[in-house]
Amino acid sequence: MNATPNPLHTALSLAASGVPVLPLRRGKVPFGNCPACADNACGGRPNMKVPGPCRCPGVCHAWAAATTEPAVIVSPQWSAAWRQAVCVAYHPGGAGLTVVDLDDADAIAWARATLPATRVVPTTRGEHWIYRDAMTSRNAVRPGVDIKSTMAYARWLESGTGALAALPDAVRTLAQREPSPPRRAPEALSVSLRGGQGECPHRTPVFLERGVAMAEQRITEASSAVHATVYRTFLAVLFRHGRCGCLTDTHVTRLFTAAQAKGETPRHCTDAWNNARTTLGL
Question: For the whole prediction, is pTM greater than 0.85?
Answer without folding.
Answer: no
